[in-house]
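Private note to self, pasted from the team thread so I don't lose it. Backbone tokens:
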């Protein structure tokens, strides 16, 4: 082939895995596809869903995680009336896929993902460490990233779910008592944090977790 470059053939192979099993004798270059950035995601939504309102635009952007496939599927679901800001946009196919991968996690890793799902879509690492009462194991973060659940934010200070829909699918698997327990742990940690640094920036989160953890009256003050 080197002597006859005109006879070369260039192949483009798509793979969800980083390992495609190519013969090591073949020269190849990996071109990872990153999620779309927020501005590009919003542009795609507007093109696919004419007349989309700002609230739906924000919901689809967050839920899709910048995945072109999910952007398209969610736009179709909202346009057909199968999803709305009040109706969960997840499809059974997506939940089954997420829950199948979730079932493969060991119990400690699964428990951490449940905690992260309760805490939100994008959670400061320091908050999770304070809730856990210990430093977060880098090995666990690496395992959960390989499993396509949690990823370290670009600034390195938070963990985020790959898609908002992934977080919602995990959250749906948590039983009521465990859900209240997790929300209570997050609430207690945020309350302690608010006493140290002031409450202004934490009011929304405190009220949210108070409502879901215990009698709603606690959320009012």
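Design output:
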């Amino acid at each position: 082939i080197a002597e006859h470059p005109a006879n070369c053939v260039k192949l483009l192979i798509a793979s969800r895995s980083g390992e495609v099993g190519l013969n090591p004798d073949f020269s190849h270059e990996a071109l990872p596809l990153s999620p779309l950035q927020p501005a590009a995601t919003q542009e795609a939504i507007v093109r696919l869903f004419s007349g989309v309102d700002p609230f739906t635009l924000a919901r689809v952007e967050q839920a899709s995680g910048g995945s072109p496939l999910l952007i398209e599927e969610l736009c179709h679901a909202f346009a057909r009336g199968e999803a709305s800001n009040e109706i969960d946009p997840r499809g059974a196919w997506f939940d089954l896929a997420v829950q199948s991968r979730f079932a493969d996690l060991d119990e400690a890793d699964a428990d951490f993902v449940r905690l992260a799902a309760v805490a939100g879509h994008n959670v400061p690492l320091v908050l999770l460490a304070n809730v856990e009462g210990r430093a977060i194991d880098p090995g666990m973060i690496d395992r959960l990233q390989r499993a396509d659940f949690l990823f370290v934010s670009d600034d390195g200070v938070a963990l985020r779910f790959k898609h908002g829909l992934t977080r919602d699918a995990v959250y749906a698997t948590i039983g009521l008592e465990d859900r209240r327990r997790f929300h209570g742990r997050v609430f207690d940690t945020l309350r302690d944090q608010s006493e140290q640094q002031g409450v202004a920036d934490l009011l929304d989160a405190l009220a949210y977790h108070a409502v879901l953890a215990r009698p709603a009256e606690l959320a009012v003050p």
